[in-house]
Amino acid sequence: MSQKRIYVDFHVLQTVPPSCVNRDDTGSPKTALYGGVNRARVSSQAWKRAMRLDFEDIFPKESLSLRTKRIVRLVAEELTNLGYTENAEEAAAQLIKNAGVSLDKDNNSKAMFFMSRAQAEALALLGLESPDVLGAKVTKEHKKALADALCNAPGVDIALFGRMVADDPSYNTDACAQVAHAISTHRVQNEFDYFTAVDDIPLDDNAGAAHIGTTEFNSSTLYRYATVAVHQLSGLLGDDTADAVAGFARAFTTSMPTGKQNSFANRTLPDALMITVRMDQPLNLVGAFEKPVFAGEGGYAERSGKALAAHARQLYQSFATAPKTTYIVGSSLSELGEGQPLEQVLTLLKEEMAQLTGGKTV
Amino acid sequence: MSTLLLRLAAPMMSWGLDSKFERRTTETAPTKSAIIGLLSCALGYRRDDEAIARLGKSLRYGVRIDQEGQLLHDFHTAKSTKTSYVTNRYYLSDAVMLAALEGEDALLEQLAEALRHPAFPLYLGRRSCPPEGNVFLQIAYGVSLEEALRQTPSLVPPRKSLRDAQPARARMIMDSATNQKGSWFQRDQIISLSQEKREYGFRSVCEQSIPLPFGVPAPTGTLHDALAELEGP
User: Which residues of B fall within a CB distance of 8 Å from A291?
Assistant: First the structure.
């Protein structure tokens, strides 16, 4: 096991106005208790999905995966693209069954399957090169070749976020990225918006509303944390690692889950972003907010920045060392470094990743 | 024999034991499988490595719950274009645990080094629960598991309560002899973490309530005093 460690930590302070970005089964914004005090929360899975959707704009189509039950169609498309002239759907279904993934009577996989286009293409190529693979029974070697096709060349999203296949756990891939649940730096109490929907054609004798209801919402300054184990990622993506890390950084910084977006128009950008490159371990700085921030004249955002900077500095002087590199965007973390434009930071980060992993720089 | 001490604190953590399918519950304290898994993660062992089971057998485990936290239910959905797959996942929010592992000095030193330079990012039960601050606290040389749990100063400051006469107590759950009074079997002794066939054996554990010692604060990053703002001049 190589001893080299490269951890890129992402710390974001982001203020969201009144909104309900992520809600539970009762429609209430999600919350968590921390430091004895109720906090607003956006779940890890909600923000990861927002990032995955943004990946479609950030990464080229070929390097991404699709999470779908219609994997037969995916493989069939590749077969057709490669010039397969017979029934592509049937052949694709047989290939997938031979790989050990079970299909239902509509030829959909039982659970959602994360498959990259590169993997679908690899399966299709196998089908074209050795027609025996399309038979009802396959040899052990063929099964291994099919399994390899489904495990190698994971898309950038599978490499970063991992994959779980209940049918055949040998297809599970461990994630290289870790995204924490985002929590507010301060106490939050959910509020209620009492609303009415008025009929455009009112009756003469009734001025009342046609519908009344309440929407629960809150507003907060969130601390968001993520880390990428770049030394693990480079084992899966090779030369594409630097691009993947920069793409992850962009998606993590600029994405926003879409919960109740039309009602609240809450799409904001971070107040502050800090990216650290560490050669030892990831370092989550949420402890800066264990003692909840109180709003002063600067609201929560400015004080949260100060608390984060103070906590980081204190840790670097005691139980941890300073990171190898720190990139700052925004002005509220000035004690930790000079703020730079996001685009510049992403370029510098990509270059540093390429250097550290021995990969190419575009 | 010495004892390795770990500080497990984070806004959210989750310790699964016997959950199946769509309802994933949490225990109120870390399971041994979670901790051995955490250490294996730091060491860089892959899931099917037999060294994981051996590691579990070379260490005695105990935990003291310094801050119980609160149960949190997360309504988790995975959306497709039309359908939604729902799971109910439980977490402990705002909990702080002192985990202790007793073993040979050389092994503990190897683990301490691994925790400071983990091969994979560490997490407290679920990937979305990164630990806050450092996990490695210290190695108590020549100190047994039970002594370490009873004597290590509390990881949280004393609660200022009107009823200050009652000393703070904490629950301590430790490996025990099978015939010890009050012990029960918990299925968290790792046999294999392989994706194809996960298997766990039984471990005998016993819970006790012990006085929580407050002293020189343990060397961590954060110490929270909720009532400090209200203190008079």
Answer: 222, 224-226, 228
